[in-house]
Amino acid sequence: MRFFFFILSAALWVSILSCGSAGTSQHLKTDENGWTDDYEGGLKVAKASGKKALVLFTGSDWCRPCMFLESKVFQSEEFKALTKDFVLIRLDFPRRHPIDPEIKKRNRSLGNNYGVRGYPTVVALGPDGKEITRWVGFRPSDKDKYIANLKGLLSK
């Protein structure tokens, strides 16, 4: 009888623990560099974790400043060291590579909502989803300034 009670208690605790963590799951589909294209999921993770989100509006296959930002900043070791402190959301507007029509429509709508007028645009959001700041455009000579701005954002 005691053994039965022990098994029942253990099963109850496992059930309680798994239910408690299910609602706070932090799982997002990301690429090898930690970026997700799941805007809503990214905002949920940012809110639940208390992290700031970086929302990148990019033209990955046609926008030269976007390509420079990717190669000079986002591929740098300095940026990679900061990624644990942010939720990274990439909204792409490719011209040469096909994209799911629903994702294209969603990205266009989000671009309009944020008033994106140039690429790349990076919008920094607080854990509450409110805009803190934004950066538009990129020149390769701006790498150190860009990294410094990101580090400064962490202290806000």
Explained architecture:
This protein is α/β, with parallel strands linked by helices and 156 residues long. It has a single domain (31-154), classed as 3-Layer(aba) Sandwich (Glutaredoxin), CATH 3.40.30.10. Helices cover 47% and strands 17% of the residues. It has a five-stranded mixed beta sheet. A hairpin with a 5-residue loop joins strand 4 and strand 5 (131-136). The radius of gyration is 20 Å and the shape is globular. The relative contact order is 0.16.
Domains (count): 1
Distance between the termini: 58 Å
Strand content: 15-25%
The CATH superfamily is Glutaredoxin
Low-confidence stretches: 3-25
SS class:
alpha/beta
Largest sheet: 5 strands, mixed
Q: Any idea of the CATH topology?
A: Glutaredoxin
Compressed to H and E, one letter per element, the order equals HEHEHHEHEEH
CATH class: Alpha Beta
Shape: globular
Question: What's the helix count?
Answer: 6
Kindly state the percentage of residues in helix.
40-55%
From the coordinates shown, what is the CATH architecture?
A: 3-Layer(aba) Sandwich
Strand order, largest beta sheet: 1-3-2-4-5
